[in-house]
Specification:
single chain, 231 residues, alpha/beta, five-stranded mixed β-sheet, 5 strands, 42% helix
Length: 231
């Protein structure tokens, strides 16, 4: 499967208020491995950059004055991502900006040419109740993020690629298994019998901790904690 790990930097937080993309980066993965192909552009946003945004990524209008506009690179970008699965951390943010840019120049929205996976949602499902920012995930999976003193779309895409590969490592064996030639199931009389199953029960302290996490998930998900509602 072809995947693109994607990130953006912007002039502010709300595309609905006219904020624009100033950096766009995507790294290609094939069969869960980097191919070496990537798309990376700095963009002239044709507007001011919020001070708070500059403090995050370090870029100013002056830095971008001679860069191409989004319209100048849109077709090249769409060709690069067409048919791929996009992996984006906090995807609604980046997708909203991409769709605003594409709509502005009469191009199809990104959701119509790609599928999108939100790696933040994936991380929350994998590590409920824990911090799942990119920095937190880098620390959890021993991904070196020492260079990330400021946010940058290309660097963040590289870090996210490493994090996603580590976070979904179990899928690698699953992909191999699904791609292998199926073997006949054991006949009933050939199936192993009399397995000795060791049951290790949770301690009272572990049960209390689990209950606390479930209550937190219940609050944050507005009543959708499956563990609490399972029959």
């Amino acid at each position: 499967m072809r995947r693109i790990v994607l990130d953006t930097e912007t002039t502010g937080l709300e595309p609905g208020e006219g904020h624009r993309i100033i950096e766009l980066a995507g790294l290609e993965l094939s069969d869960r491995r980097p191919t070496g192909r990537h798309f990376h552009r700095f963009l002239n946003p044709e507007r001011a950059i919020d001070l708070a945004a500059t403090q995050v990524h370090g870029m100013t209008v002056e830095d971008l004055a001679d860069k191409p506009k989004f319209a100048d690179v849109a077709d090249e970008f769409l060709e690069f991502v067409a048919g791929a699965e996009l992996l984006i951390h906090n995807a609604p943010f980046d997708v909203a900006f991409l769709n605003a840019e594409l709509t502005r120049i009469g191009r199809p929205v990104i959701d119509s040419v790609c599928s999108v996976t939100d790696t933040l949602m994936l991380a929350r499902e994998t590590h409920p109740g824990k911090k799942n920012s990119l920095d937190a995930l880098c620390e959890r999976y021993a991904v070196d993020n020492a260079r990330r003193t400021l946010h940058g779309a290309l660097l963040d895409a590289q870090l996210l690629a490493d994090v996603w590969i580590a976070m979904t490592r179990g899928q690698e064996s699953l992909d191999i298994a699904l791609g292998s030639i199926p073997t006949p199931a054991l006949m009933a009389e050939e199936a192993p019998r009399n397995w000795l199953l060791t049951v290790i029960r949770a301690t009272a302290e572990e049960l209390a901790e689990h209950a606390g996490i479930c209550e937190r998930i219940e609050r944050e998900s507005k009543g959708r904690c499956l563990w609490l509602h399972a029959a």
